[in-house]
Amino acid sequence: MSHPAPPPDSAPQDHETIAIQAAAFRRLLAHLMHERSDVQNIDLMILAGFCRNCLGDWYRDAAQARGIDMSKDEAREAIYGMPFAQWKAQFQREATPEQLAAFEAAQKKHG
């Protein structure tokens, strides 16, 4: 799923603001990686409209905007804290029919 890029920052941010935002982002990643690895990406997509893979895409977009070449796999590893295939094998379960139906309904509602 492709996500629109956020609008460019209109004003430069001070180093403290950037440091606070970075700390909050790192805490979000730690939460999703370690404390809530039980929450499936499909459930995140249904409820919030984004998932860990989206975060990986946004991370890669931000890197590329700064002239840093990054593959999809490298970006996902930065988000998952391990190669995506390893995370998927360790934590991802097969989507249930109910999850698939809810995901489809959410896509129609937000798409």
From TrEMBL:
Residues 39-104 form the SMc04008-like domain. This is SMc04008-like domain-containing protein. It comes from the Bacteria. InterPro entries: SMc04008-like_domain, SMc04008-like_sf. Pfam families: DUF1244. Gene3D superfamilies: SMc04008-like (1.10.3340.10).
